[in-house]
Amino acid sequence: MFNIKQGLKVLRQNVKIAPENPGVYRMLDESGNVLYVGKAKNIKKRIVAYTRIEQLTTRLQRMVAEVRKMEFIIVENENRALILENELIKKLHPKYNILLKDDKTYPHLMLNLKDDFPALRKFRGQRNPHCRYFGPYGSATAVNEVLDTIQKIFMLRSCRDSVFHNRQRPCLLYQIKRCTAPCVGKISQEDYAVLVKEVIAFLEGKTASIQEDLSQKMQQASDAENFELAIALRDRIKALTGIQNHANLEYAALKSVDIVGIALKEEWYCIDIFFIRNGQNCGNAPYFIRRAEEATDAEVLEAFLSTFYGEHLPPKEIFVPLQLENSDFLEKALNAKIKNFSKGNNYKLIETARKNALAAVERRLAENKSIHNNLQEMVEYFDLPRLPQRIEIYDNSHNQGSYAVGAMVVATPDGFDKKSYRTFNIKDTTITNDDFAMMKEVLRRRFDHMNNENRPDVILLDGGLGQLHAVYESLADYDLKDIKIIAISKGVDRNAGKEFYHQLGKESFALPYRSAIAFYLQKLRDEAHRFAIGTHRKKRAKSMVKSSLDEIEGIGAKRKRDLLNHFGSVAAIKDASISDIAKISGISKKTAENIYNYFHK
Prior knowledge:
By secondary structure, the chain is an alpha+beta fold. Helices cover 44% and strands 19% of the residues. It has five domains: 5-92, GIY-YIG endonuclease (3-Layer(aba) Sandwich), CATH 3.40.1440; 108-250, no CATH class; 255-362, 2-Layer Sandwich (Nucleotidyltransferase, domain 5); 391-542, UvrC, RNAse H endonuclease domain (Nucleotidyltransferase, domain 5, 2-Layer Sandwich); 548-599, 5' to 3' exonuclease, C-terminal subdomain (DNA polymerase, domain 1), CATH 1.10.150. Strands 12, 13, 14, 15, 16, 17, 18 and 19 form an eight-stranded mixed beta sheet that branches. Strands 9-8-7-10-11 form a five-stranded mixed beta sheet. The protein is globular, with a radius of gyration of 29 Å.
């Protein structure tokens, strides 16, 4: 049994000095390790709650027993507290926080309102305050469907800025009435701005007002005998009506809502979230969280919402299946209403999300059971000392020695750990046609950064005995105790399912044809191959867009982009004068002279 007295003493001492402001607090143990990171509207009141030890679960009582120090960070409001808590949890991985390990990013739609003629684009990444964002969407397919709809109805441009600034005549999209051709002045900036406002209204669910406005404009065009415009407006109304007719009646009244369901089975939670925008189901996504000791559904759900909306745009409303203790804090932090229901249509929607969550967690457990069985067979076939917790699979990719990369993927009993994937650009350019030498370099660089937390149990190589011996040779100076290295080579006629497996000091062998363990190891090898090929292609594509601008001193990515957007091509920059180049925002006269002198040596 743990001794809680000292921890309680530390908390009571900190209650006296804790601020009565919004902020983030950290609990530390005797060694200075962070035990827990939390947020609060009033930090002092939150610490007082931890001193009421009889109201805490055993897990939190154990945490209090370990506390030896506390640290506080005051912030300006609840939103900033939420963001800071999320940042610290990701950085510190505190022992007693409920950690959301699925780090998925979802596509949004973005309008850059600083542009004279904004384009609606797909977007992932860090948000810019000058832009408007809509989403998230559950998949790229859902985003593409919305983009296609908006192109039909509102005809915003979709071209890249470099193309837009240098077109001489309208493209095919203008001919088929999918673009208004602002690139060549077919629409004024004022009229285009009206279309942008209509797009924003559409994405916010205000379709009725848009349809009414279009109808009035169509009637005015008809009265003025401008029948071409009237027909164009009629087609837009028809497309908008078609969208409304195909809307799911179940979601018709919902404009900006996320519907959250939660299910627990065995040691795993699944939280399934449905994105509803403008009466349309924009997809859903399951998240899996391993249950912390004695954690309640409400505690897990609150931790999920804090983490998820620290990374994604919150909607206007969030439907949840439970009453949350800190819902007021979350509502202020997210600027969204958090609602739960015990009956009615909205309750049925939450129940649908819960059923999806339950089905997803059941599938996950079935997959994990299958993986566990395969790992158990690996122990027997490959003489492993224990069930492997971390398997690293390596592969190389290059194009006749060019753009050479090595890739590492990681598999665990819970599936592929994509956060741990790594790529290695081959530094020694003299070996890029030698797969053995490339693998040696990759493994040496990997083992230089090995520690107890990322130490593999098994290394799986795509190759034969030669590759196996090369790896052992390169790792001769490293501690390989309890690390099994296995090479997998193509079998008879290079037929999948007839591979040979090689280990040092053991005769090569094939696994039973079409057995579950054989399929599992093929899946591991194929994932490494997919990742290596994908990395190689990205590197090659990036190299292909490099230009001579990269060689000019003082020209980084932003200035390069600005130059190309303004002039359209490197050839046009070469023909430009110093004064023309200096007209670009952010390009000084000295930098313009550097660019001009580079092309006119």
